[in-house]
Protein backbone atom coordinates (compact mmCIF):
# COMPACT_ATOMS: atom_id res chain seq x y z
CA UNK A 1 0.00 0.00 0.00
CA UNK A 2 1.19 3.55 -0.69
CA UNK A 3 2.40 5.85 2.08
CA UNK A 4 1.13 9.38 2.64
CA UNK A 5 2.28 12.22 4.90
CA UNK A 6 -0.44 14.44 6.34
CA UNK A 7 0.41 17.81 7.87
CA UNK A 8 -1.96 20.33 9.39
CA UNK A 9 -2.57 23.13 11.85
CA UNK A 10 -5.03 23.06 14.72
CA UNK A 11 -7.64 25.81 14.96
CA UNK A 12 -7.51 28.23 17.88
CA UNK A 13 -10.44 26.45 19.56
CA UNK A 14 -8.85 23.02 19.06
CA UNK A 15 -5.59 24.20 20.65
CA UNK A 16 -7.49 25.76 23.53
CA UNK A 17 -9.31 22.45 24.12
CA UNK A 18 -6.06 20.44 23.94
CA UNK A 19 -4.42 22.75 26.49
CA UNK A 20 -7.38 22.46 28.86
CA UNK A 21 -7.55 18.68 28.44
CA UNK A 22 -4.40 17.15 26.86
CA UNK A 23 -5.16 14.27 24.52
CA UNK A 24 -3.13 11.75 22.51
CA UNK A 25 -4.24 12.65 18.98
CA UNK A 26 -2.47 9.62 17.50
CA UNK A 27 -5.44 7.51 18.61
CA UNK A 28 -7.83 9.59 16.50
CA UNK A 29 -5.40 9.45 13.56
CA UNK A 30 -5.17 5.65 13.84
CA UNK A 31 -8.96 5.35 13.93
CA UNK A 32 -9.29 7.55 10.85
CA UNK A 33 -6.63 5.59 8.94
CA UNK A 34 -8.43 2.34 9.73
CA UNK A 35 -11.78 3.80 8.60
CA UNK A 36 -10.13 4.67 5.27
CA UNK A 37 -8.77 1.15 4.83
CA UNK A 38 -5.24 1.79 6.02
CA UNK A 39 -3.11 2.20 9.10
CA UNK A 40 -1.21 4.86 10.96
CA UNK A 41 2.55 4.40 11.05
CA UNK A 42 3.60 7.48 13.05
CA UNK A 43 2.08 10.61 14.49
CA UNK A 44 4.12 13.59 15.62
CA UNK A 45 3.41 16.96 17.17
CA UNK A 46 5.50 19.41 15.18
CA UNK A 47 7.10 22.80 15.63
CA UNK A 48 7.03 25.33 12.83
CA UNK A 49 4.54 25.66 10.01
CA UNK A 50 2.46 22.64 11.02
CA UNK A 51 1.17 21.46 14.40
CA UNK A 52 1.18 17.78 13.48
CA UNK A 53 2.64 15.36 10.96
CA UNK A 54 1.38 11.82 10.46
CA UNK A 55 2.50 8.99 8.20
CA UNK A 56 -0.30 6.72 7.00
CA UNK A 57 -0.33 3.69 4.77
CA UNK A 58 -3.49 3.81 2.66
CA UNK A 59 -4.83 1.76 -0.26
CA UNK A 60 -4.89 4.57 -2.85
CA UNK A 61 -5.30 8.27 -3.64
CA UNK A 62 -9.05 8.06 -3.10
CA UNK A 63 -8.53 6.83 0.47
CA UNK A 64 -5.95 9.56 1.10
CA UNK A 65 -8.35 12.20 -0.21
CA UNK A 66 -11.12 10.80 1.97
CA UNK A 67 -8.88 11.03 5.05
CA UNK A 68 -7.93 14.64 4.29
CA UNK A 69 -11.56 15.60 3.68
CA UNK A 70 -12.70 13.90 6.88
CA UNK A 71 -10.10 15.76 8.94
CA UNK A 72 -10.90 19.11 7.34
CA UNK A 73 -14.66 18.66 7.67
CA UNK A 74 -14.48 18.79 11.47
CA UNK A 75 -13.31 22.40 11.40
CA UNK A 76 -10.60 21.82 14.02
CA UNK A 77 -7.74 21.51 11.54
CA UNK A 78 -6.73 23.79 8.69
CA UNK A 79 -4.02 23.86 6.07
CA UNK A 80 -4.09 20.10 5.49
CA UNK A 81 -1.27 19.06 3.19
CA UNK A 82 -1.14 15.53 1.83
CA UNK A 83 2.07 14.23 0.28
CA UNK A 84 2.44 10.87 -1.48
CA UNK A 85 5.65 9.24 -0.26
CA UNK A 86 7.74 6.75 -2.23
CA UNK A 87 9.67 3.86 -0.75
CA UNK A 88 13.30 3.40 -1.85
CA UNK A 89 12.19 0.67 -4.27
CA UNK A 90 9.50 2.92 -5.77
CA UNK A 91 12.04 5.75 -6.06
CA UNK A 92 14.49 3.50 -7.90
CA UNK A 93 11.72 2.41 -10.29
CA UNK A 94 10.90 6.06 -10.95
CA UNK A 95 14.58 6.83 -11.56
CA UNK A 96 14.80 4.03 -14.14
CA UNK A 97 11.66 5.26 -15.90
CA UNK A 98 12.94 8.85 -15.81
CA UNK A 99 16.26 7.81 -17.35
CA UNK A 100 14.46 5.97 -20.16
CA UNK A 101 12.15 8.94 -20.72
CA UNK A 102 15.03 11.43 -20.67
CA UNK A 103 16.89 9.46 -23.33
CA UNK A 104 13.88 9.88 -25.65
CA UNK A 105 14.17 13.68 -25.54
CA UNK A 106 15.88 15.35 -28.51
CA UNK A 107 19.20 17.00 -27.80
CA UNK A 108 18.95 20.82 -28.05
CA UNK A 109 20.77 22.29 -31.07
CA UNK A 110 23.64 24.58 -30.31
CA UNK A 111 23.70 23.58 -26.67
Beginning-to-end CA distance, first to last residue: 43 Å
CATH class: Alpha Beta
Percentage of residues in DSSP E strands: 25-35%
The CATH fourth-level homologous superfamily: Lrp/AsnC effector binding domain/regulation of amino acid metabolism (RAM) domain
Rg estimate, integer Å: 19 Å
Overall structural domain count: 1
Which structural traits does this protein have?
single chain; 111 residues; alpha+beta; Alpha-Beta Plaits; four-stranded antiparallel β-sheet; 4 helices; 4 strands; 27% strand
Structure description:
This protein has 111 residues and is α+β, with helices and mostly antiparallel strands. The chain has one domain: Alpha-Beta Plaits (2-Layer Sandwich). Helices cover 43% and strands 27% of the residues. The protein has 4 helices and 4 strands. It has a 4-stranded antiparallel β-sheet with strand order 2-3-1-4. β2 and β3 form a beta hairpin. The protein is elongated, with a radius of gyration of 19 Å. The mean pLDDT is 94.
